Amino acid sequence: MNKQIRNTVLLLLCMIVIAAVLAGCESNDNKSNTSTTVTAAPTESATQTPTQAPTETPTPTEEPTPTPDDWYAKMVSESLMDDGCNARLKKVIDKARSGEDVYIATIGGSITEGAGTSVYENCYAALFASTFASTFGKDGGANVHFINAGLSGTPSTLGVIRYQRDVITKNDGHLPDLLVIEFAVNDADDPTNGATYEGLVRRALQAENEPAVILLFSVFKSRWNLQDRLKPIGTYYSLPMVSIKDAVVPRLGKKFSDQLYFADEYHPTGFGHKIMSACLMYLCETVDAQEAEQDVPFATQPLLGSEFDNVLMVEADTPGVTIDAGGFSARDTAVFSTKFESVTCFPDNWKHVAGASDEPLTITANCRSILVAYKKSSSANFGTAEIVVDGKVVKTVNGNEAGGWNNPYTLVVLREAEVGEHTLQVRMAEGSEDKEFTVLAVGLGQ
To answer: What local confidence, expressed as pLDDT, does residue 64 receive?
Structure first.
């Protein structure tokens, strides 16, 4: 073989070797970039284009797949702010297992009502109740019953007014065995700084059936809630507390995006509701695994006040209450309704209409606190009213607000330590005599 042919053959052999090496490198690179993922259970459709796995950037993604370090389970566990005294919750779980009827109730604002999800069964409250029933109940959970008293735009000041009606009366008079209270993002304007919230807690705890009470702290997209204000109440009464803020906020923009958890600035998506339910169930399963403790005696001395322990919503037949509707004898039919049931929330209201008399709505009763919920409307037909207690104007309020959606706004117009006879009047202010104004509800603290 001459020199030229030999050199050509060597060159060809080198090229073959180099090609083989490059092919091997490419194959190894492909292997190193291949990962196996476990598909999570399906949830409501993502609102944005899904990606295969969560990223470090806050971009919309489908429900994330838990990684080998089980971050999802760790997140849920970190929601348990305090398991409190376990005696009452263990009693409820044991009662469910035995086949006895168990009544679960939730009370709160729009998140509890189910805002952010299009299907009621996917809201955290319904999910929690059904999961509790299937986990601890008898015969598939048929002995576990549920009432949801979540209502949009309502803080604890209105919660104490509607507790009897929405938690007990609407549940055929059954007292809840387990009550979840969720007002941690609705009480920013609470003039009592937690006393009405404590009133709900105290009312439930003093019931003859000694129910379990769970405090649930939801969170806004801004990362804000009132858990720092409300936690001392839970600690004072040795209650279990669940913080969605503590669980979710550290993972936002890391394990999943804001857009995946929040449907808007305030409400969780179906994925968010699912997390909230899982956090409540984690508390129950944790308590179930513990040794039973002795129940903590009820603290008769309140932390903030007891003026709202037993607030009654004024109705036409409320014993010991005198009502004169005056010029507020009309009924307002343009009142907001529940999200899923479309039930008018305050049908028995008092409305002043144009042309009605100037006589005030007058309510007289023995009480130590008075709360008034009135309607906020975007209609220019609504005007200003004066709230008068025992002959003195204590508030002047405008029923017309640009962002009003026929929603309630609640005032505390009387708060005293002792029960006494008091008279509440609502009258149209000067210049608004021919305007409209609606009193949605009145609560009297006994």
So the answer is: 76
8 A C-beta contact, residue 337 and residue 343 = yes
Q: Is the dihedral of CA 188, 204, 317, 392 positive or negative?
A: negative
369 close to 311: Cβ distance less than 8 angstroms: yes
What integer pLDDT is reported at residue 114 of this predicted model?
97
- φ, ψ for residue 217 (rounded to 5)? -110, 100
Structure pTM? 0.85
Structure-model confidence comparison of residues 298 and 18, the more confident one: 298
Residue pair 138/284 in contact (Cβ under 8 Å)? The answer is: no
Mean pLDDT for the chain? 88
Contact (Cβ atoms closer than 8 angstroms) between residue 394 and residue 387: yes
d(CA 411, CA 121): 33
Structural domains of the chain sorted by starting position, each given as residue range(s) with its CATH number in brackets:
71-288 (3.40.50.1110), 311-445 (2.60.120.260)
Residue 124 reports pLDDT greater than 90: yes
Average pLDDT over residues 180-193: 97
DSSP, collapsed to helix, strand or coil, labels residue 141 as: helix
- Supply the pLDDT for residue 17: 37
To the nearest 10°, the Cα dihedral for 253, 259, 260, 264? Answer: 130
**Distance between CA atoms of residues 52 and 45, nearest Å:** 14
Helices marked H in 219-288: 227-236, 244-248, 258-261, 270-288
Q: How many CA atoms lie within 13 A of 402 on its CB side?
A: 0
Among candidate residues 243, 256, 310, 315, the one with its CA nearest the CA of residue 282: 243
Give the burial string for 317-334 (b: 16+ CB within 10 Å, else e).
eeeebebebbbbeeebee
Which of 135, 198, 14, 24 lies closest to 127 in space, CA to CA? Answer: 135
The CB density around residue 267, as the number of other CB atoms within 10 Å, is 23
Bridge partners of 67, per DSSP, are none
* The amino acid at 367: C
**Tens-place pLDDT, residues 418-442:** 999 999 999 999 999 999 999 999 9
